[in-house]
Amino acid sequence: IDRLRMPYSERIDYCKNKVSAKLFKIMLEKKSNLCIAADVTAVSELLDLADQVGPHICLLKTHIDILEDFTPDVIQTLKDIAEKHNFLLFEDRKFADIGKTVQLQYNKGVYRISSWAEIVTAHSVTGNGLLDAIKGSDNDTKGVFLLAETSSAGSLINGAYTQSTIKMALQYNELVTGIVCQNPLFTEHPGLIQLTPGVQLQAGKDNLGQQYNSVEVVMQEKGADIAVVGRGITLSTDPAKSAENYKKLLWNAYLKRIE
Ligand code: 6AU
């Protein structure tokens, strides 16, 4: 089995996590493997962006804690926009604490992440307790993307850590939607989804260590199933048009990969 050559439609049968299957279906319906990183700090900007790029994305990735004017009613509006455009809400919380603390961070506080985010990110660094904490909360409608590599320069993650993270993902396959990484690490597991950030039209970097590959490279060489694009879209003059362009480029690169 080679995940990279298999159409998304066939991979649904291998999904152990319900959200993965749901996500593949949305991707196929919308012909989109684009996740927007909606890294804006004003609620109005977030809601406008979500509504504008909504038709072109399968996932809206938030850092909900960067909003300067967050109020709990923002969540219902965001949910309504997600339903209108058929995408999933994905909070990039990168949980990385002991199980008990993660349980509190996931369910409590101002953001009550578990009440709205169908998918969250987590680091594997603290071990199984963290995933047990997320799993233990009321649901089988939730998914986790585990970080096995990062896009940033000088990351301390090494090969052994990355491999152990994949093992953890397979051990928790009912909860884990996929892996955040930069390379095709688990080609023999078509039920897991590879989410790859650090994507722009051209390779490059920012001034704080972020590193970008092009759409073609991430999809065809690096094994991405879903590409995360933030500033490539959010800083463009027309985010809707830009998102549509990324969507088409990413989908064509995927079609070429499975040819
Ligand atoms: O396209 P950008 O650089 O504007 O945004 C990239 C987004 C940011 C990061 O928090 C996130 O992707 N990210 C992640 C994720 C998704 O977990 C991991 C990583 O290794 N690199 C990265 O940039 O919202």
Structure description:
- The strands form two sheets. An eight-stranded parallel β-barrel has the order 1-2-3-4-5-6-7-10, surrounded by six helices. Strands 8-9 form a two-stranded antiparallel ribbon.
- It is 40% helix and 17% strand.
- The chain has helices at residues 8-11, 18-30, 43-53, 73-85, 99-107, 128-136, 159-171, 215-221, 231-234, 239-258, and strands at residues 34-37, 59-62, 88-95, 119-123, 143-147, 176-180, 193-196, 204-205, 211-212, 226-229.
- With 259 residues, the chain is of the alpha/beta class.
- Helix 3 (43-53) packs parallel to helix 4 (73-85) and helix 5 (99-107) runs parallel beside helix 6.
- The chain contains ten helices and ten strands.
- 6-acetyluridine 5'-phosphate binds at residues 37, 39, 92, 121, 147, 150-152, 180, 197-198, 210, 228-232.
C-alpha termini separation: 15 Å
CA gyration radius, whole angstroms: 17 Å
Backbone structural class: alpha/beta
Strand proportion, as a percent range, falls in 15-25%
Overall pLDDT score = 97
How does the overall form come out from the CA principal axes? Answer: globular
Strand order of the largest sheet: 1-2-3-4-5-6-7-10
Share in helix: 25-40%
Are there runs of 5+ residues with pLDDT below 50, and where?
Answer: none
Q: Based on DSSP secondary structure assignment, what is the total number of beta strands?
A: 10
- Spell out the helices and strands N to C: HHEHEHEHEHEHEEEEHEHH
Number of helices: 10
The molecules bound to the chains, other than polymers, are: 6-acetyluridine 5'-phosphate
Largest sheet: 8 strands, parallel, barrel
